[in-house]
Amino acid sequence: MTLHEKENSRINFRRVKLLAAALAAVSLASLQMLSMPNSLKIDSTDSLDNTNNNIAHAAASVDQVGGRPVAIKLNYAHFVPLTNSSQSHQVKVVVVYSLTPSLIAKDRVQNAVMKVYAINGSLLKTTSFPDGLKLNSTGRVQLATTLSESTIRNVTASVLFTDSSKSANYSNILDVKLGLGQIIQP
Fold first, then answer.
1. What is the dihedral sign for C-alpha 54, 56, 57, 62?
2. For 172, left (φ over 0), alpha (ψ -120 to 50), or beta?
3. Distance, C-alpha 31 to centroid of its chain
4. Which of 12, 49, 65, 91 satisfies CB 3.0 to 4.6 Å to 172 for a cystine?
5. Contact by Cβ (8 Å): 62, 174
6. Whether 62 contacts 99, CB under 8 Å
């Protein structure tokens, strides 16, 4: 084998290694996308006629995300000390929701969950509606919890709509990063 043939063989081997690495990366990314909670879900499209006109304008700006039957958008959030205790802080998130025009979706979605995480990603608290909730085609939902750990200065509140057992995800996931004393009013 000549020097030129050896050099071409090394170049072809490098190309094969690069191609294999690229295919592995694409395969891994595809698997991650398929296992994401916001993967596409198709529901029937029967129409609903009832609306809540008080907040229809705000909810009309919510886009359906990821094929989920409920789209949620931040309306208000805060992470503030409670006035009666310097040791406790409240995390509150208010979302505006819009339900796809589907009778099936309206019957399935029966709760909202807020998980509060520390800056290092550890779960601090989970809150939801003990008796579930009844949805209109548009609306507003408030979730709040109290953290008694006074050293926490930054949190992420993660909100989503679920079924009654809180095991199925029926909305986009809304993550809100908050520092102590911060109020968000979009």
1. positive
2. beta
3. 19
4. 65
5. no
6. no
143 three-class SS:
strand
pTM of the full structure: 0.63
CA triplet 26, 28, 29: central angle to 5 degrees? 65
Q: Where are the domains of the chain?
A: 1-35, 56-184
CATH classification (class only), 56-184: mainly beta
CA dist 141 and 55 (Å) reads 11
Two tokens at 53?
A: 């006109």
Report in angstroms the alpha-carbon separations of 130 from 97, 110, 112: 19, 11, 10
133's tokens: 């909730």
Contact 71, 95 (CB under 8 A): no
Dig out the tokens for 185 from the structure: 């009013």
How deeply is 105 buried, as exposed, middle or buried, from its count of CB atoms within 10 A (0-12, 13-18, 19+)? buried
Tokens of residue 165, six digits:
């057992």
User: Would you write out the chain's pLDDT as a tens digit for each of its 186 residues?
Assistant: 655 555 555 556 566 565 455 444 444 433 343 333 333 222 222 223 333 333 333 333 344 455 678 899 999 999 999 887 678 999 999 999 998 776 555 566 689 999 999 999 999 999 999 988 888 889 999 999 999 988 899 999 999 999 888 888 889 999 999 999 999 997
